[in-house]
Write a structure and sequence with these properties.
Layout: E1 3-13, H1 28-39, E2 51-52, E3 59-71, H2 76-86, E4 90-97, E5 109-117, H3 123-132, E6 135-138, E7 151-161, E8 165-172, H4 179-191, H5 197-204, E9 219-225, H6 240-258
Parallel strand pairs: 3-9
Antiparallel strand pairs: 1-3, 1-4, 2-3, 5-8, 5-9, 6-7, 7-8
Helix pairs in contact: 1-2, 3-4, 3-5
């Protein structure tokens, strides 16, 4: 019997040409569909009726994007274990049963974080600049326009100062294309004195001012939340081996570059 499930996935954006399927390119969706086919006896992609909650650009990371698909595997642990066993770069973290009407794009909340180098930044100015972008605005100067409305409501923006970093968290029901990266571009320019808060405010009010688009690899989709949908982790150790291996690889890279 076929069931429909939602699964939260993680991936590093490096090595993927974005999340959306593109013929001839390595994408997150292409990897997932390949994984599903491998553990499902070679079924074609149409059978899974695959959907994804959020599109991420090339280089952007995820800890909690949500995919939805059909499966005949009814054991949650075996399903996620099987997918992780054949996957190259996509990590299947948690699962929930959903019905046919569930659309993963209709989320109650999306949470992103951006990690910015903080050396040389004025903390008070950065915090004041971020406050400008909370709430409902027309973000036409802070998004890549694709014919859709440019108004959006950012519910909250929070900031945490780390060792040499500023970690900015954004929460909203949805985000416009490139919105976070262009806001961060403005905040970075203002925080370093290359632009003023007044410049950012004028751009938000409609003046044609560009601050550029911040790098993609510092942006992570942290989580997506739905009312009435509870995701569960069937095995706490599901990803332990993969995590240990990647942390070791990171330590090797750090050792190499610190020796240059």
């Amino acid at each position: 019997m076929t069931r429909r499930v939602a699964v939260k996935i993680a991936y590093e954006g490096e090595g993927f040409s974005g999340s959306q399927y593109q013929p001839g390119l390595r994408t997150v969706e292409g990897e997932v569909l390949s994984n599903l086919s491998l553990i499902s006896g070679g079924r074609d992609s149409e059978w899974f009726n695959f959907k994804c909650a959020s599109r991420t650009d090339a280089g952007v990371n995820s800890l909690g994007n949500v995919i939805v698909f059909n499966t005949e595997i009814h054991n949650d642990r075996e399903l996620l274990k099987g997918l992780n066993a054949v996957s190259k770069g996509v990590y299947y973290r948690s699962i929930a049963d959903v019905d046919e009407s569930f659309n993963p794009r209709w989320a109650n909340s999306r949470i992103y974080k951006y990690v910015l180098k903080s050396d040389g930044m004025d903390r008070g100015t950065v915090e004041a600049c971020l406050k400008l972008f909370e709430g409902r605005h027309d973000f036409k100067n802070f998004c890549k326009q694709d014919g859709k409305p440019t108004e959006a409501n950012i519910e909250s923006i929070s900031l945490e100062w780390g060792e040499g970093t500023a970690i900015i968290r954004f929460q909203a029901r949805y985000f416009l294309w490139h919105l976070i990266r262009r806001i961060v571009g403005a905040v970075n320019a203002v925080g370093r004195g290359d632009a003023s808060i007044q410049d950012a405010e004028r751009a938000l009010n409609g003046d044609s001012i560009s601050f550029g688009t911040a790098r993609a690899d510092a942006l992570t989709l942290v989580d997506i939340e739905y009312k009435g949908v509870e995701f569960s982790v069937p095995d706490d150790g599901l990803l332990d081996c993969a995590i240990d291996e990647e942390l070791f690889r990171c330590s090797l890279r750090r050792l190499f570059f610190s020796s240059l």
